[in-house]
Amino acid sequence: MALTVTAAPAVPAVREEAPTRGWTHRWQVLPLIATVLFVALPGDGAGAGTVFGVPAADLLSGVAVLVCAGLLLHRRRRPLSPAAAVVLGLPAVGLALATVTAADPVAALPGFVRYLQIFVLVPAAVLLLVRDAQGFRTVAGTLVLLAVVEGATGVHQYVTGSGASYMGEDIRAVGTFGPGDVMGMATVVGYGLVAATAYALRAPAGTPRRLRPWAPVTAALLVVPLTLSFSRGAWIATAAGALAVIALTGLRQAVRALAVLGAAGVVLVGGFGVGSEMISQRLTSITEVTSAPDRSVNDRYTMWAAAADMWREHPATGVGLKGFPAHRDGHASIGLSAGSDTAGAGQEFRKQPLLSPHNMYLLVLSEQGIIGFTALVGSWAALLAGGVRRLMLARARGAAAVDCGLAAVGLMTWQTVDFLYADIGGPSTVLTGIVLGLAAWWALDRPERTAGP
User: Fold this and answer.
1) Where are the transmembrane segments (predicted)?
2) pLDDT per position as a tens digit, 155-180
3) CA 66 to chain centre
């Protein structure tokens, strides 16, 4: 009689639940995918990419936050670990303090909402909606797809002379972002290149052999539109992000990757002459910051000095969110120009006012003081340090999701370096929240979710 006892009826229940869970996990990242892809729509305030003047990508990021909130209410469980809650929630404290202490709290309120969206809500939504390594790869792969689309548009602009104005010619690759946001395409392409580099060096487990060459080919091709963006800050940030990825893969593979990158650079710039003269001039201008800086460099350093002076006057809480433009003229020298000249890519000549120091760290310091700076920059430092630590542990244990760690650390490195030369603003800003969320997923999420196949 004992031989007739069996536990077989329990098996079908497990098989029935697995597809539902898998579909649920993939459905959850759809708002994130849509947010990334909709960044490509022109968002000049009147185009198809806006709704009541708000970029569609920003609205979709709000949808992602609402979906995340709905799932949390449905599941009724603690959403974040204590460490994640502190790292992602701490910036909100500094933002709130800078808002209530501003000379005009009502005027500072839009800045509070924007910062809260980019640095708190969207990263938290990404952390919670990305359930496994496959979800991470899907979102990161969407960044690469967006980079390819924008990069192809930018190369077409350079070849046909339909880009933004640069040195008297309409050749600057700006993608769909227009001459008013010359950093937009460079940012998108930089993200895509770093992510593609990570997957080129460490292909995800189970990738078919015939698909493995696509990552290195994509990374190499994205060098072209990045170069044609003529964006010095994006060049430096992308080099830093790619080098971080290469260095963290191991010495032997790093040497091979650097050799390939060097050869690709010689072929693209030296062999084919892709904008070689203008690129050379642009590279040279990076070091000519004291002897003979161009006007854009002079304006940038003037605004940096103005931001530092604002902080010295209000060291604890700064001048308040959105306060830099109002205080700029009282702290900037007479050497600051009236604005930046923009034209081309379907736009008439315009004088674009200089409303930020083009350095995120100095912008935060001047508007939020040392309290907000410590909270926000400390959060970014925790994400980067935590990501590197977990990546080293994952490599030592031979975890399958090392490719996700490489992409997360590379993207976070790109962002922290780029903030030395840029700040938030424009349609591509929402991608900053996506990148911070991916870094948070790797650095702060539970080990069993980041160690998947």
Assistant:
1) 52-73, 80-100, 112-130, 139-159, 182-201, 213-228, 234-251, 258-275, 360-384, 396-414, 420-444
2) 999 999 988 888 778 889 999 998 88
3) 21
